[in-house]
Amino acid sequence: MTRKNIISMVRLLIVFITTLYMASCQNFLDAEEATKDPNRATEVTPDLLFNSVQVKGFFMFEGQLARTTTIWMQQMSGTDRQLAGFGQYVVTETDHSGEMSGVYTGGGLIDIRNIQKDAEAKGWREYAGIAKVWEALVMGMASSLWGDLPYSEAVDIENFPTPKLDKMSDIYAALQSLLDEAIADLQSSSGGYMPPNDFVYGSDVNKWVEAAYTLKARLYMHWAKVDAANYGRALAAAQKGISSTANNFKTFHTTTENESNGWYQFFKNRDSYMRSGRFLVELLKTRQDTVRLEQYFERLDGTSATGPTAFVGSDPGDGNSGASSLSDIYLAKDLSTSILSWEETQLIIAEAAFKTGDEATALAKLNEVRANFNLPALSVSGSDLFTAIAEEKYVALFLNMEVYNDWKRTGYPESSSDFSSYNGLDIPRRLLYGSGERNANPNIPAPSQQPARNENDPS
């Protein structure tokens, strides 16, 4: 064999081996064993997403947003670290950045929409209706705090990587239509699969319909300050709303540590950060509302009296970490708090009836709520009746963010130096957009370019 033939054969052999090696490597890398993770879910079912939606929702209504607004409304007081700053009305765009992002991700709007899409594709109309109520609840809460938000383009990331900000009024109009769809879905009697992990109402469609109507009424009330016609709309919706305390829309918790109440989880490691607000403590004493004074707050002196030393609150800026904490009731691991309630529904009816000229109904509904807490009936009219309704709602919706929206609409508690300001700083009328969302979306303005008030709360 000539040298030339040997060189040719060696070259052919090298090409053959190289080709064989590359093919075997490609086959190995493309093999199912290499590309398929047996531990990774290939399909996320609506029920799994629904778990995330509920857990995110529960802690959204018992977390940082609730802590901030309840401090601003002086039901509680920020007494240490970051929360002491909130009590002095000092907030930045980083303080609620995670909460704003959470409106959309990790159990937020994206997952809620995926549940709706899957349920509707399979003909599960009632299931889709439940998800639509959740969407209206979360987005209504978010818009009430931030105002204009990404919504119509928020989920379609492929086509809208930087979604626009929709006007607050457009968001609310869309949510009212969405709730109408939800009610129609829930009342369709179409059958089909229902979520076995519905922690709020156990897939009871009648209770979901009542909650949807209460939510409609709440969202109408948010706009009554700029359009009084919303009082009539809220009244009509609330009359179909939550009909008993047994039907309250509540969070769900157990004594298992990682399933426990959000307030318990916060106080467990940050006990000094918050204490009772002096304004609410003193109001309950003045009203002789001993039932809720003892239900809400820690007794300090061990006596059975409700005198000056038994329950003590802290004013904005005082930082009195020796004031009363939350009671054992509210720091129980398995406490479920109300997001939408019979009490709110009846007091919406009372306020809306008053504003539409029906003082008899307004007084009757007010006294129904008072009777539920063993308080004597009132006999008031005119401006005194309106103040009594606003005061009762302020007390009844303890730790509920809706108190913040009520204050912006009604002015109760009345603006005064001991309630509304600290060192010349007024209570903020909205939250700053989160820095995380602003850095990712150029449509979100810098703090200096954001409005001081939302569209439904003009000066």
Q: Numbering strands along the chain, what is their spatial order in the largest sheet?
A: 1-3
The count of strands amounts to 6
What is the helix tally?
19
CATH class of the domain at 46-245 and 337-447: Mainly Alpha
Shape: globular
Give the topology string: H per helix, E per strand.
Answer: HHHHEHHHHHHHEHEHHEHHHHEEH
Low-confidence stretches: 1-10, 12-41
- Main sheet characteristics: 2 strands, antiparallel
Q: Helix share of residues?
A: 40-55%
Name the beta content range: under 5%
The CATH level-2 architecture of the domain at 46-245 and 337-447 is identified as Alpha Horseshoe
Structural class: mainly alpha
In whole angstroms, the N-to-C terminal distance is 101 Å
Mean pLDDT: 90
Radius of gyration: 27 Å
CATH topology of the domain at 46-245 and 337-447: Serine Threonine Protein Phosphatase 5, Tetratricopeptide repeat
Topology, please?
Blueprint: H1 3-30, H2 32-35, H3 46-61, H4 64-72, E1 76-78, H5 81-87, H6 97-102, H7 109-121, H8 125-146, H9 168-186, H10 205-221, H11 229-238, E2 249-250, H12 262-269, E3 274-276, H13 278-286, H14 290-296, E4 338-340, H15 342-355, H16 359-372, H17 382-396, H18 402-410, E5 421-422, E6 425-426, H19 435-440
Helix pairs in contact: 3-7, 7-8, 8-9, 8-10, 9-10, 10-11, 10-15, 11-15, 15-16, 15-17, 16-17
Features:
459 residues; mainly alpha; Serine Threonine Protein Phosphatase 5, Tetratricopeptide repeat; two-stranded antiparallel sheet; 19 helices; disordered N terminus
What would a concise description of this structure say?
The chain has 19 helices and six strands.
